[in-house]
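User: Teach me something about this protein's shape.
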Amino acid sequence: MRKIPHALTMAIIVLTSPLTFALSSTDLKVTGLITPNACTPNLSNNGFVDYGKISRQDLSVDKRTRLRDQMLDLNIQCNAPVRFALLMRDNRDGSAIVNSEIYYGLNLDHSNNKIGLYSLNFDPASTVVDDLTQVYRTDSTTGGKAWSSSNRQVIPIGAKSYLGFTDSAGSSAGPIAIRTLTSRVTVETVIAPTSELDLSAEVQLDGSATLDVVYL
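Assistant: First, the predicted structure itself:
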């Protein structure tokens, strides 16, 4: 009879012997909700903001320089009234000259210096929701579990805080269901002091972010 190697023999014994040891376990549950509702966001000019060529003489040597504001029109169309919020993800994460969720980076120069930052600002006075006469903004830093008291102050969109809209002032009930939203949004851009940049060659402003619709 051919001998079975010890390692294989031991494996067979383990597999065929009764289990006499206790098991410690935990459960995994995967949940979610597939909704038939969908919203499509669109930015005018395909979301493209171009400052053209900027002379170094127009930039401060030792202070940050704010460029002229740029406006874009945002349109969100839903196939039915939907409760949603907005977030924006920085595709150049870590390159903003100020570390804050409301500031987005313009990438790095040739010497890996941070070029600047920009923000995207919503003004309820420039926002239209369905047939409402007035719109108020509300935000949540808890992933939609709790909402700020709604108001009409301008707010920059964040990478972590939800931004929603409602029809009532002073409400903390969160966003209402919306079918159509249009808003004139403002892009504010700031360049680092030229003393902190490598200007031995042209520096490309290369900001990129993704605006997300979060269904609530």
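Now, about its shape. Residues 1-17 have pLDDT under 50 and may be disordered. Residues 6-16 form the longest helix (11 residues). If you'd like, I can walk through any region in more detail.
User: That's plenty for now, thanks!
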